[in-house]
Amino acid sequence: MKTCSFCNKEVSKLWYANPKCCADYKCRSEYAKVKGKEKTSPVKGNTLSSKGKVYKIRPLSAKMEKKLVEYRKLRDRYLKENPTCEICGKTPVELHHKKPRAYFLTDVSVFMSVCRLHHDLIEREDKWARENGYKLNHL
What we know:
The protein has helices spanning about 25-35, 60-80, 100-105, 115-125, 125-130; strands at about 1-5, 10, 45-50, 55, 95, 110-115. By secondary structure, the chain is α+β, with helices and mostly antiparallel strands. Strands 1-2 form a two-stranded antiparallel ribbon. The protein has a two-stranded antiparallel sheet with strand order 3-4. Strands 5-6 form a two-stranded antiparallel sheet. Mean pLDDT is about 80; it is low at about 40-45.
């Protein structure tokens, strides 16, 4: 049997800590205080600063949020000016980017209004889409 450094109980197993402590919550909390560490439980989506404060991690950077505001205005204006599918003429329409959004998010020259059916077709049939100019290389 081994003795806990905090509660002096006889236990069969001790935590790998220095000083040694048992698995009891009170003893582990005391150990954390001795080591100068507050017991904190991790919260999904948050991070701890060096001072122990919890900060929410931003899902988007301020720069990207600004770009998305501009993109939404351009998208809405483009879809208003082009209310039908550019392939078959049906509605409702979605906005397709002929080049990757990551590089050409706000470039109106790569926008294309398409119906759901043709948007799926463009994404699924890469060779056909490139042959017809619905997908372009990003270089």
